[in-house]
Write a structure and sequence with these properties.
The chain is built from 14 helices and six strands. The chain is mainly α. The mean pLDDT is 91.
């Protein structure tokens, strides 16, 4: 009897020792990996399950034990891990790490980027390069990649084969809607471009652009000219009307802004006679150039797109800009136009 009792005591003590060892190993597994501070950015993607997160924490040397961490989560039902980027430290114990990633204490990993209306695609390329660190060459290569452009044409109903015309300098010129966007700092070039195209689609859909007799490519081309020619909001629909009137009369548009774009000069530069006669698919100042440029010459605002869709009801054929004020003056005849030149030049 004594022997049996002794055996039971030994078993109980052994079980207690094993239990204490298990508890000890469990709590040891929850201690910090390092005594020294070492910051680590840890990312949790949306939809990642708990086991994957624990594996990633272990691989990043942020926790000592996968099993201890899993048990800890099972014992604490209030832990709800949230997606995001977190700044963790290898000197944090497991409890603190889970407090951070379940508390949603994410790093502010986003930036606001403004693309100004009326600017050219090449200007937007500079902004993307400056904000995200991509080289301008890499960005331009992406924006001219035929496979990627075809993918975009398949994805967006407002994009057509028109953008693949070999005479076009930049296929997506005019299609990247100017606005302020929030991006993650590590956003890809494709993500940036497609977010801008998403906004363009929304603007075009809200404007019922698909109901126009003109194609979307033509509407954006007209809007880009309006944007470049008009400083005043009230002038835009009238400039639109002049464009439509000239097209209907089979006249050359004769817009300086298209000549600037055609020879890749800034509007602040001076056009030479050679520039005005340059043989490219944008230069509407050539007397033999009838119709619209091959594509947009800048990225127009919503106001210019609306003006392109809703030209004013007038009979103007000419306009002249007062350089000092930016105000446009309109004329119905060439003689009236000459008078405006004498008056405001």
């Amino acid at each position: 009897m004594k022997r049996k009792k002794k055996r039971i005591i030994i078993i109980v003590i052994s079980l207690l020792i094993i239990l204490l060892l298990i508890i000890g190993v469990y709590f040891y597994g929850l201690t910090k990996v390092s005594k020294t501070h070492e910051k680590v950015e840890f990312n949790i993607k949306s939809g990642t399950n708990t086991k994957e997160i624990i594996n990633n924490l272990y691989d990043s040397k942020l926790i000592k034990s996968k099993i201890s961490s899993l048990i800890y989560i099972k014992l604490h039902n209030d832990i709800v891990i949230k997606a995001g980027s977190y700044e963790l430290d290898r000197s944090y114990n497991t409890k603190k790490i889970f407090e951070i990633i379940s508390g949603g204490l994410v790093i502010d990993n986003s930036i606001n980027v403004t693309f100004v209306e009326g600017k050219r695609l090449i200007d937007y390329v500079s902004v993307i390069s400056d904000k995200f660190g991509y080289s301008e060459e890499d960005i331009l290569n992406t924006l001219s990649n035929k496979e990627y452009l075809q993918k975009l044409i398949n994805k967006y109903d407002f994009l057509s084969e028109d953008i693949l015309n070999s005479d076009i300098y930049y296929p997506l010129e005019g299609y990247l809607f100017p606005d302020t966007y929030a991006f993650y700092k590590d956003a890809s070039i494709e993500t940036i471009i497609e977010k801008m195209l998403d906004k363009t689609k929304k603007v075009l859909d809200n404007s019922n652009a698909s109901l126009s007799e003109k194609s979307i490519h033509e509407i954006l081309t007209i809007a880009s000219i309006i944007e470049s020619e008009s400083m005043m909001q009230e002038d835009r629909s009238v400039v639109s009307q002049v464009i439509y009137k000239r097209l209907s009369l089979n006249m050359s548009l004769g817009m300086d802004v298209t000549s600037y774009y055609g020879v890749k000069k800034a509007l602040s530069e001076t056009l030479t006679s050679s520039d005005l006669n340059a043989n490219n698919a944008y230069n509407t100042r050539r007397v033999d150039f009838i119709g619209l440029p091959v594509g947009p010459i800048c990225n127009p605002s919503k106001a210019s797109i609306e003006a392109a869709l809703n030209p004013a009801d007038t009979d103007y054929i000419y306009f002249y800009a007062d350089i000092k004020t930016g105000k446009l003056y309109f004329a119905k005849s060439y003689s009236e136009f000459q008078e405006l030149i004498r008056k405001y030049s």
